[in-house]
Amino acid sequence: MTQSIVVQVGQCGNQVGCRFWDLALREHAHVNKKGIYDEALSSFFRNVDTRRNDGEGSDIAGGKIRCLKARAVLIDMEEGVVNEILQGPLRDVFDSTQLITDVSGSGNNWAVGHKMYGSAYREQIVERLRKAAEHCDCLQCFFLIHSMGGGTGSGLGSCVLNLLEEEFPDVCRFVTAVYPSAEDDVITSPYNSVLAMQELTEHADCVLPVENQSLVDIVNKIKHMAHTGKPGSVIKKDSTVISGQGGVSKSEKPFDAMNNIVANLLLNLTSSARFEGSLNMDLNEITMNLVPFPRLHYLVSSLTPLYTLADVSIPTRRLDQMFTDAFSKDHQLIRADPKNSLYLACALMVRGNVQVSDLRRNIERLKPSLPFISWNQEGWKTGLCSVPPVGHSHSLLALANNTCVKPTFIDLKDRFMRLYKKKAHLHHYLHVEGMEQGCFTEALSSLSSLIEEYSQLDATKNLLVPDAPRMNIAT
Amino acid sequence: MSIVTVQLGQCGNQVGQELFDVISNDTHDAQRYKPSALGKAYHVCSQERFLHESITGELSARAVLIDMEPKVITQTMATAAKSGRWKYGDQSFFCQKQGSGNNWANGFCVHGPRHEEAVGELVRREVERCDRLAGILTLMSVAGGTGSGVGTYITQCLRDAYPHSFLLNQLTWPYGTGEVIVQNYNSVLTLSHLYQCSDAILVHENDTVHRICAQLMNIKHISFSDVNKVIAHQLGSVLQPAHTAHTHSQYSRNPMGELMAGLVCHPEYRLLSVCSVPQMPSSSLAYSTFTWPGLLKPLRQMLITSTKMEEGIDWQVRAPPVGQGAAQKLSGFNTSLANLLILRGKDVSSANACGFLDPALYCPWLPAGGAFSTWRSQLPFNRYEKSATLVSNSQSLLRPLDHMVGKAWNMFASRAYVHQYTKFGITEEDFLDSFTCLEQVISSYKHL
Ligand SMILES: Nc1nc2c(ncn2[C@@H]2O[C@H](COP(=O)(O)OP(=O)(O)OP(=O)(O)O)[C@@H](O)[C@H]2O)c(=O)[nH]1
Ligand SMILES: Nc1nc2c(ncn2[C@@H]2O[C@H](COP(=O)(O)OP(=O)(O)O)[C@@H](O)[C@H]2O)c(=O)[nH]1
Ligand SMILES: [Mg+2]
Ligand SMILES: [Mg+2]
């Protein structure tokens, strides 16, 4: 089996990452009752003999679980979040050799993160990445987690992305990027996001954008359901996508509910690579199936069900509801409406007690209401993993390469322009060594052309595109 | 005579496991057959064909398991061992850590060449264990990356290593409504390459088999295991021992050779489809009785209407009067090049297969008489008192093939996903060559 390394950068990246590790441990403990270090665990964790104290311990191939260490590199340019992790219940999962911190932060300034810290920490970051990679016998993927709005995650995070491409050109790069909501408290977030977008467009294999506003909406929806639960529709508390119940962290911090959603996204995305199933979907199949053109690699995700009702019987109708919900606006992790935009491709990653007939039935049922691009009318990728998430009997992660990401990008561009026209805060950026006005114009034109590429595809939506005339064969 | 099976990728391995399960159960049941001499002969012949006995008396499949990821092989071997009847050889598998990612080019250009030697060695060991080799059966899907890409590459290698052996490729075609987005590209690349090196290509369409599970087997929640059981039943009924025209009282010693000789008489036509009657839930079997005419009449109509399942048959379609040109043929009529009918069960000698001899069913330019053959066995197969399986080289795969090529061509016109293939060394010209090859095949079958 293959291994993956998580690189979490900045406050958001580290907070989300932390939730991921907690829920990943919970999931494996749930499946792996015997406490044996198995292949599934090895994808994200090392099993380490800590008695051999040469700094980071030595790997143990199989047998009993001794001490699990996350395959992770934690980077932040302030200490707060990482220190909290090191004092919290997850402290044993990380080693000091996996961390890089500084004290002063990036001041929500992409240039400080990308240019200043990027060059100051370059060697150290590469060294940590190489070390993590050495512990893997078949490294398949890097999962980079950071926000787009701040300075460290967006600036230094996108710098790490470039380093990964230079150092490990053959290892797949997934980025989970948290996009700021319109009322974000970081004033310069539009600058930071647009500057980071250019890097993501050019250097990532796949980006999973997540919008904070959508996370908030989902959290509120679940909390509302939990409070107004009518008899017969009582939510199983530990089953919601926002719950951390059963994990090692006992206290709940402000962003935790939101971040648990993102953690679940990553768990479901990687489940078929970790556990067995009758139709496996490995990580390298995601880009192969969902990225028809290299730059158009932004995938809109939705998770269903958001919760399971305490009532144990699962009639077929409820299973079908799970598929229906995956295409509705209020289950998407960015604010977007895939049904009223154009699909380039769509993956359904199913977990648990679901068979191929359930998949086929639902694809046939939903297909007529979903517009697909002319050359990919049957653009479905399916996976069946037999191990369901904790607290559920089944679940679905839908990944869509869909032109519905465009409004989010246009919105971001508008907010950028509002600042940029007034040259607001620009001097904070141009102070930083290596940062020039050209960086802004380049990033802006990169974003504009990305939007244009989606528009051109969108324009074919209601056209009747005839089949390409077939080759002529001399008979 | 023995057959060595090579199972590739998730699909190939999962199908293979069900195939050996059907065969080992059927072979086991044969021991209880009366008169026991017949049962014993069947048992011995089948076992020699598919299994070998270790010194400890355990039965192992004459099979090699290949995948680029470990999970499926681990599970397949464990499931087989759990049967208690048979297992896979402990050393008969080859796997790597990371799959081919649904990328034919990755399988064909990277994994295939890299592991050619190790895989070749495993196959050679299995071949050497056979007193005589009847041929090599390869099981794989066309939609993924390992079965299709590595499978194609390995078939080429086997052709070179065993130039005089028969190579039969069993292919699982994907659901038409989509399950791997690049499935049509992978299929086109696989089929066009296999057409140059395989002796015959036996196709199962997931859509068809799925419908059999739903409508004939009455399964509500259909799993891949259910689908694979149907494929295994059809394959098993073709490959288990039978008397052929050449072997009267003995079981055929050259099943693969006779299959090819009967069905693939022209290199331009190598696509075989298969259908069986009856197919029903095992719980209903005990309450059903069949007559040979009652089985063969619908089977013949299924053939001429290209219906792969005993339901929704169009009884209006009739064979045209002999001597009419292709242009006058009724639409909906499926012209055959060759057919092989395999009959198994009670009173098999009384079964009258004349209906399949009608020259009107066949394309006019082939010599009469050579186009149809029958194999028979008195033993019930897989617990069906009577059963009939038809392997057909006809126009019946034309429609799904044309659909597949058309979809791939549309996608290729926009060059979508092509960069994923060129990355591993497949050029746009390679695509074009594959399209040309298959358009030729389509045209040939169209003009039968
Ligand atoms: N009938 C049947 N089809 C299957 C089964 N497993 C997979 N498939 C089909 O096979 C195709 C996918 O190919 P796989 O066999 O999973 O791929 P692979 O050969 O392992 O190649 P990679 O995973 O891409 O390296 C799809 O069309 C699936 O429907 C199975 O057990 N039975
Ligand atoms: N979903 C989520 N968003 C966060 C979290 N922490 C910060 N953010 C968002 O991230 C952006 C600020 O970036 P931050 O990560 O704090 O800056 P950095 O530490 O410099 O990378 C804002 O859009 C915040 O709303 C978190 O834990 N979860
Ligand atoms: Mg901050
Ligand atoms: Mg596979």
UniProtKB/TrEMBL annotation, chain A:
Q: Which CDD domains match?
A: epsilon_tubulin
**Gene3D superfamilies found in the cross-reference section:** Helix hairpin bin (1.10.287.600), Tubulin/FtsZ, GTPase domain (3.40.50.1440)
Cellular component aspect of the GO annotation: microtubule
Q: Which residues form the Tubulin/FtsZ GTPase domain?
A: 55-277
What's a single GO BP term from this record?
Answer: microtubule-based process
Q: Name one GO molecular function term.
A: GTP binding
> Would the keyword GTP-binding turn up in this protein's UniProt record?
yes
Tell where it localizes: Cytoplasm, Cytoskeleton
Q: Which UniProt keywords are given for this protein, alphabetically ordered?
A: Cytoplasm, Cytoskeleton, GTP-binding, Microtubule, Nucleotide-binding
Please name the Pfam families in this protein's record: Tubulin, Tubulin_C
Record's InterPro entries?
Answer: Epsilon_tubulin, Tub_FtsZ_C, Tubulin, Tubulin/FtsZ_2-layer-sand-dom, Tubulin/FtsZ_GTPase_sf, Tubulin_C, Tubulin_CS, Tubulin_FtsZ_GTPase
Q: Where is the Tubulin/FtsZ 2-layer sandwich domain?
A: 279-414
Keyword Plastid assigned: no
Q: What is its main location?
A: cytoplasm
- Family per similarity comment: Belongs to the tubulin family.
- What's the protein here called? Tubulin epsilon chain
What is the scientific name of the source organism?
Conger conger (Conger eel)
UniProtKB/TrEMBL annotation, chain B:
SUPFAM superfamilies assigned to the protein according to its UniProt record, in alphabetical order: Tubulin C-terminal domain-like, Tubulin nucleotide-binding domain-like
Task: State the Gene Ontology terms under molecular function.
Answer: GTP binding; structural constituent of cytoskeleton
UniProt-listed CDD domains: delta_zeta_tubulin-like
What are the GO cellular component annotations?
centriole; cilium; microtubule; nucleus
Q: Which residues form the signal peptide?
A: none
Q: Where in the cell is it found?
A: Cell projection, Cilium; Cytoplasm, Cytoskeleton, Microtubule organizing center, Centrosome, Centriole; Nucleus
Superkingdom, natural source: Eukaryota
Sorted keywords for this record are: Cell projection, Cilium biogenesis/degradation, Cytoplasm, Cytoskeleton, GTP-binding, Microtubule, Nucleotide-binding, Nucleus
Gene3D superfamilies annotated for this entry? Helix hairpin bin (1.10.287.600), Tubulin/FtsZ, GTPase domain (3.40.50.1440)
Q: Report the residue ranges that make up the Tubulin/FtsZ GTPase domain in this protein.
A: 47-247
Record-linked InterPro entries = Delta_tubulin, Tub_FtsZ_C, Tubulin, Tubulin/FtsZ_GTPase_sf, Tubulin_C, Tubulin_CS, Tubulin_FtsZ_GTPase
The Gene Ontology biological process annotation of the record reads: cell projection organization; microtubule-based process
PANTHER family noted in UniProt: TUBULIN
Q: What does this protein do?
A: Acts as a positive regulator of hedgehog signaling and regulates ciliary function.
| Family label | Belongs to the tubulin family.
Return the protein name.
Tubulin delta chain
Organism, scientific name:
Conger conger
